[in-house]
Amino acid sequence: MKKLSTVFTVGILGLAVQTAANAKDEVIYLYDWAEYIPPGLLEDFTAETGIKVIFSSFESNETMYAKMKTMGDSGGYDVIAPSNYFVSKMRKEGMLMPLDHSKLPSLQELDPEMLDKPYDPGNQYSVPQIFGATAIAYNSDIYPAGTFNSWNDLWKPEFKDKLQLTDDARELFHMTLVTMGEDPNTTNPELIKKAYEKLLTLRPNVLTFNSDNPANSFIAGEVNAGMLWNGSAFIARKEGMPINISWPKEGAIFWMDTLAIPATSKNPEAAHKLINYLISAPVAEKVALEVGYPTPNLLARKKLPKEIVEDSQLYPPLEVMKSSIWQDDVGDVSAVYENYFQQFKAAK
Q1: Stretch 205-216: mean pLDDT, rounded?
Q2: Is position 183 annotated in a ligand binding site?
Q3: 158 a known binding residue?
Q4: Is 168 marked as a binding-site residue?
Q5: Is 222 annotated in some ligand binding site?
Q6: Percentage of the chain with pLDDT > 90?
């Protein structure tokens, strides 16, 4: 981040005021995850550009997608934040506008390992905002290191009624399919059925399903092992809890929350400016410190405390990244996954 002299800063602020006066009627609409927008962030953007941002938050990709579908061609959002597998789904359905990379100079600051993924080759429709992973978490006061090396370890009978799983159909089937050596993004109903049958043998070990602040169960001592997001485990450790992450040998479940422009955006020029701002190093650093999840911005990482960026349980080693498969859209087959998932939850 460039350091500005006082005189230059005053000049910039004066320019921002002038820009604001020239663009006083320019307003764009952002639809993002609430925790990714710390207080004052959007006001700073307005001061720099004169563009006012109206912010709305959503709690799930499904909610965001359904609202975008309902709004149709009259959709009022200019920037949205779909997760990776919804980027795949929405671009296939023509819901996203191709990005102009020449208007996104901050894109060059991002980690190449976070770019050009199968859900959006060449990042034609989306750019990374925050990423995370689901792995095996355990209380190191209860279980020694090496207890969990594979997803298959969760099936061991000594964990009867002791595990927490995420309340997410795709994540549970992803975990199970990779233990079978199969594609976690399969659309083959027979393979999904076989995965369901294996999942049923895990059901006696499951105490709870939780995707709503799942670290709280560990912090409260209600569970001591199971599936957990790396950022949630990091937050638990900050609270003084000895919650460690083990990266399964079959690979973790990686996800990316992105930024994209809906095809119905009324102001794509301003939308590019907002996206570039949100992925820039100063903002990425602030968000990473706020939410505890890894940032894909390499310049921002250099500004973060060493105890954060050198924490291999938060920022996965390269070999973990390379061994893991990102979730992708499975189309209408998602209903098959969801149906089996509900049966799995009701089985006990």
Answers
A1: 89
A2: no
A3: no
A4: yes
A5: no
A6: 72
Decide if pLDDT at 61 tops 90: no
- Count the neighbouring beta carbons within 10 Å of the beta carbon of residue 76: 14
Structure tokens at 304: 């973060």
- The pair of three-digit structure tokens given for residue 44, joined into one six-digit string: 């700073």
The residue with tokens 């109903």 is 189
Contacts of 279-284 with C-beta under 8 Å, sequence gap 24+, read 279/104, 279/106, 279/107, 279/109, 279/110, 279/127, 279/128, 279/129, 280/106, 280/109, 281/1, 281/106, 281/109, 282/1, 283/41, 284/109
Q: What is the pLDDT of residues 291-307, one digit of tens each?
A: 888 999 999 999 999 98
Q: Which of 163, 140, 131, 146 is nearest to 298 (CA)?
A: 131
85 is in an annotated binding site: yes
User: What is the C-alpha to C-alpha distance for residues 193 and 235, in angstroms, rounded to an integer?
Assistant: 36
Q: Is 327 annotated as a binding residue?
A: yes
Task: Answer yes or no: are the C-beta atoms of 280 and 297 closer than 8 Å.
Answer: yes
Instruction: Consult the annotation and say whether 32 binds a ligand.
Output: no
Q: For the chain, which domains are there?
A: 6-125+256-309 (3.40.190.10), 132-252+316-346 (3.40.190.10)
With a threshold of 0.85, does the pTM exceed it?
A: no
Q: Where are the beta strands (DSSP E) in 94-174?
A: 127-139, 163-165
Look at residue 253 and give its three-state secondary structure. Answer: strand
